[in-house]
Design brief:
Blueprint (H helix, E strand, L loop, with lengths): L3 E2 L4 E3 L2 E3 L4 E2 L3 E2 L5 E3 L2 E4 L3 E4 L7 H12 L6 E3 L5 H4 L2 H7 L4 E4 L3 H9 L5 E3 L5 E3 L4 E6 L9 E5 L4 E5 L19 H16 L3 H11 L6 E4 L9 H12 L4 E8 L5 H15 L5 E5 L5 H10 E11 L2 E2 L1 H13 L5 E8 L5 H12 L2 E2 L4 E4 L4 H18 L1
Parallel strand pairs: 8-9, 9-10, 10-11, 15-16, 17-18, 17-19, 19-21, 21-22, 21-23
Antiparallel strand pairs: 1-2, 2-7, 3-6, 4-5, 7-8, 12-13, 13-14, 14-15, 19-20
Amino acid sequence: MNAVKIKEDIFWVGVNDYQTTLFEGMWPIEQEGVSYNAYVINDEKVAIIDTVKSIKADEYIEKIKSIIGNKKVDYLIVNHMEPDHSSGIIELLAEYPDIKIVGNKKTFPIMNNFYQITENLHEVCEGDTLCLGKHTLQFFMTPMVHWPESMVTYDTIDKVLFSMDVFGSFKAPVGSIFDDENDLAAFEEPTRRYYACIVGKVAGQALKALNKLGGIEIGTICPSHGLIWRDNPKYILDMYVKMSAKETDPGVVIAYGSMYGCTQKAAETLAIALKNEGVGEVKLYNVAKTDISFIISDIWKYKGLFLGAPSYYGQIFPKMANLLYKLSEIKVDNHKVGFFADYSWSGGADKNFSAFIECAKVDVIDEILMIKGTPDEQDVLALNTLAKKMAEAIK
């Protein structure tokens, strides 16, 4: 995709990445890819907003040159130092060595740690402005959304918010970068999965940042990943506010691990019972087969959650332990949660579930249901009772 005009002097010079299979070394993106969005403001002075991942730096620099020709670049605005946005800085400085790098006081120590860059730095603080000619940029600090140096840049003339990772998503736009030229429904799950996995831990800080940005007029949102919101920025604003406030829909996610099918039978029994109780949305996930990012995405969406696992050498099924670790990090304190644990000769999973309940301060609908081996008639009755309690709890 070539450079794309957003406003009269503002252009997208980002790239799509279909080479990386695991975002942050963890989250699968091999099917849908991800975009690294960067921007050029071609005014009397030229400002570039963010770089891209270094594997795509050549393509990025070609796009910059296609817009500015032989002009020099005056400023590089660094909204976020995470290497998917900053690692192209070495190649950019090789091409434009006199650039003045704009960031805040927390930007530059991280920049030095990564790239040993200590010269031509221009520090900005909350509310500071930078005049490029026709355009004036204003800077707002958004600490811990999701790194300490994170900030956003606002073009006061065209009302464009360069929002860094805020309002981002997985899934590389195909053919067009704009919201009005894409199927927004296709971006809903990648946006929620991105938020839950990347931003979820700092949802409180994200909500503070959104409240701060609510005081400015926003005509277009240009995030670091995903779509450019020029037609309906309210769509992504509303979605992010809902996710940051941890608002949920009525529905239940059942995430389970199973070695020989016993815990799976319990999970399937719960799913049937929930449907019989009138729960419209029931999502069933095997943690050994589905990456936890997809499970967490639906957990973020739905009010109810069941977690089930067998014991494994006196502990819990390892794949469930991985999910519990992430859920402890992002918190599910706004959910109704139930647990079931299977064992053969001694327990173990229940101890891990109990520790999680205590650590994560979850709202438990009942005691952990213990099942020995294949669920028998009494276990099925207990599972049906558990489903009934969940259905009532999420209404």
